[in-house]
Amino acid sequence: MSLFLIWKKYGKNKQLTNAGPFHQQLEEALAEYLGVEHLCLFANGTLALLTAFQALRITGEVITTPYSFVATSHSLLWNGLKPVFVDIDPVTCNMDPRKIEEAITPQTTAILPVHCYGIPCDTAHIQQIADIYGLKVIYDAAHAFGVKREGTTILREGDLSVLSFHATKVFNTIEGGAIICHDKKTKQRIDYLKNFGFAGETTVVAPGINGKMNEVQSAFGLLQLRHIDKALAERAALFDNYKTLLADIPGISLLIPPDNIAWNHAYCPIMVSDAFPVSRDGVYDLLKSHNIMPRRYFYPLISSFPMYRALESARQDKLKIAQLRADEVLCLPLYPGLEKEVQVEIASLLKGVSENVSSDSSALKTDEIFAERVA
To answer: How far is CA 90 from CA 145, 249, 266, 310, 323, in A?
Structure first.
């Protein structure tokens, strides 16, 4: 069914926004699909993150990762909170729980981990720390739509999980987001906060914002949800094809979750190590020169931006693993409809660099050799 056909129903209710029937249907359908009790839709993921901290009345310091999209930490500043960055695990690219505990101070009130690339954090260890120190845990689950560990959704972890439904995500409503919570009282507060704080026609109970998802976005989401399993299967097949094509290239490795994870294949991150004769940025430039658009997720680190770099926790010597990954990870194109010929071309280009550069004179740096060839 097309968006036009589903939108014909609009003529019956004449409601464009303010929690109309499509909005209500999508909340219920997503909660059922994801295996969660309560889900609150938002116009975008950033508004959902901003509201999550208001919903739990978070103050003071929040421990988080420098290895993410900037919206993660921006949501803290907008709430008057102080980000405290900690280094990441070299295998998963998620926050290292050992570093979290070291960063706790009397001002710490919450932890903001990210399920990076949709690969789950060490949620058990993080929750153990939170329980010991009385901290809230809000997961930035922007990448983690549909991800499960040992058959159970990871969106039930922590106090809240925040999803993004941006057009680049596995499931999208063009723009959109959601907060996952565990009880009716919290959902009610979130619903008030995203609607200017209104609890009734003339009653305002909190300083809310306009975070509501409209009916067009909601209708689009209902259509997307009908095809999500097919899209996830196609992503998995494309990722497996990359694994095969890139398996024998020295210095190129894929970031792969543990076997007990039912992953959504949201991204295809490769690590370009020193064993590869060209740097990550050299590979990035090479692919772009062939009209292939990879992404350097996540470079530069959030902690390097002007509004964060003065923080003590932003010092580079404290974030060595995060900086290493920021310099060597490249996300290859991965989306339903990606032609396998493009994947073959990517592998061919990488193999060509590996084989040809190794036979060149070592008098030139490998990136200089590459630059000469691209030029």
So the answer is: 23, 21, 19, 25, 11
